[in-house]
Design goal:
Length: 502
């Protein structure tokens, strides 16, 4: 097997593994072990790629570290094309890592239809693997839509009281936005075919299609709508707090750590290269949406009494800062935003994991039922404080590196925007500290004693803490992955580099 063909394995291995997990569902314990072993094997395969001496090379689909390109729907010019660069590699590893975490945190929490639950977890992993590597736009759209199916069932079957409402709202928002992207994709496909005589869905070829400013603007707006819903940007965010509130812990981890990342990734990978002129014109809008998201999320988070909803709104604020970096569009801010994409996936997922642990013990996520947790659960409280400090950007932890790069990059070009973004970061500190104060300290509001974390839970939290520390203290290797991605992007999409000043 060649290194390039390994990309096919990364997509189809979890899809096949999901069927094995489903088949083992008649024995829940066996199903859990099968799912854990398969997800660990997937993570090991992806980790292997970090140790290979991969160099960018050009091909018919662009310049990638690894690429495959096979016939698929030849009659309409669609191909099964996958490409891997540094950004894709890190997001693949994040997907595999959080899938392992999702299996572990569901070990005792999920007792209903265990086989079906793990089927959807691994199936979602396979869809995300394809999405983060697809270089054919029809293939990307296929993975983009199919990922909704497992998340819908994870929400609708294993969620909390209002799970059906949250699941339907999630699908209506995301599928509705995606329909506009499909229309724009087909229009671009037809325009390229009329101009060149070659009908294709290749990202590399479609990015070279000459478009009038009006047409480009409308097509870009359709893509922007689809990706803004998934990020999500205010005011298209209302599905997210409900989805997080009703989702099982594994569902919240996948939502915050992975599905939100698909919107930002698609923005960076597809919308900007395909429509560079419209992207340049939208910079004031992106800056405004990013700032509004940061301030709005902080304002609403301060009013929350449910700790899970507070963490959900913190995701909106963090994603707003990343979108702001897209509007800044210089190498430092972009590197920070791509790093923050990974950082948020780890830190916020860890907070959702710990909120799930609290919910199991307290039977509540309300602040009025907490307080004094440090006295009864010191190990849990230490980990919770650690990940909260990471989320608020404490120096020495991962989020600080991404945030400071974004702020410094913004200050080089737009000092006023940088100052406003800094104020937004300070507001994040305020509501995170409020969360810590109301949950860990003060007088205990519970009569019965609480059990501290189990060895399995300590293992989960310790493993999640490692990348937080590693990136916070030694971010260079990860940042170099993004440098190669940006260089490749500038090289294969020259229209984008010229339009946005790269």
């Amino acid at each position: 097997m060649t290194a390039d063909s390994l990309l096919l394995v990364l997509v189809f291995f979890p899809l096949a593994g999901s069927l094995l997990a489903l088949g083992a569902g008649y024995q829940p314990r066996l199903c859990r072990w099968v799912s854990l072993i398969l997800s660990l094997m997937q993570m090991a395969l992806i980790s292997l790629l970090f140790f290979l001496d991969l160099q960018p090379h050009s091909g018919p689909t662009g310049t990638w570290l690894l690429a495959v390109d096979y016939p698929w729907l030849e009659g309409i010019g669609a191909r099964f094309s996958l490409g891997l660069d540094g950004l894709s590699l890190l997001l693949l590893w994040l997907t595999a890592f959080l899938t392992v975490i999702s299996v572990l945190i569901s070990w005792t929490a999920i007792n209903l239809k265990v086989g079906l639950f793990h089927f959807f977890l691994l199936f979602l992993e396979g869809c995300l693997m394809g999405l983060f590597m697809a270089t054919d736009l029809l293939l990307f759209y296929l993975f983009w839509e199919i990922q909704l199916i497992p998340m819908f069932f994870l929400l609708g079957i294993w969620g909390h009281a209002r799970r059906i409402y949250a699941a339907v709202k999630f699908v209506l928002f995301t599928f509705g936005g995606s329909l506009f992207m499909l229309i724009a994709l087909l229009v671009l496909y037809v325009l390229h075919g009329h101009q060149t005589g070659e009908y294709t869905f290749s990202l590399y070829q479609l990015s070279q299609t000459p478009l009038s400013p009006t047409v480009e603007g409308w097509l870009y707006a359709a893509f922007l709508l689809a990706f803004a819903v998934k990020i999500p940007l205010v005011p298209l965010h209302t599905w997210l707090p409900d989805a997080h509130t009703e989702a099982p812990t594994a569902g919240s981890v996948d939502l915050a750590g992975l599905l939100l990342k698909t919107g930002f990734y698609a923005f960076f990978r597809f919308a900007f290269p395909l429509f560079p002129g419209a992207a340049q014109a939208s910079i004031p809008l992106l800056l405004a949406l990013g700032l509004v998201g940061m301030f709005y999320a902080a304002w609403i988070a301060l009013a929350q009494t449910d700790i899970k909803r507070l963490v959900a709104y913190s995701s909106i604020g963090h994603m707003g800062l990343m979108v702001l970096a897209l509007g800044i569009w210089n190498l430092m801010a972009l590197s920070g935003s791509l790093l923050q994409l990974f950082n948020h996936g780890i830190s916020t997922s860890a907070l959702f994991v710990m909120v799930g642990m609290l919910d199991e013990r307290l039977g509540s996520r309300n602040f009025q039922d907490m307080g004094g947790l440090w006295q009864q659960m010191p190990v849990f409280s230490a980990f919770f404080l650690f990940f909260a400090l990471s989320s608020m950007g404490l120096p020495g932890l991962n989020n600080f590196v991404g945030e400071i790069l974004i702020l410094l990059g913004a200050f080089q070009i737009r000092p006023l925007i940088a100052v406003l973004a800094f104020v937004g970061v300070l507001l994040t500190v305020i509501y995170i500290l409020r969360m810590v104060q109301d949950s860990l300290f003060g007088e205990s509001r519970r009569v019965q004693p609480l059990r501290d974390v189990t060895p399995r839970e300590v293992l989960i939290l310790a493993v999640m803490a490692l990348p937080v520390l590693y990136i916070g203290l030694h971010p260079g290797p990860v940042l170099r992955l993004f440098e190669s991605s940006l260089q490749v992007m500038w090289g294969q999409f020259p229209m984008l580099a010229r339009s946005l000043g790269g």
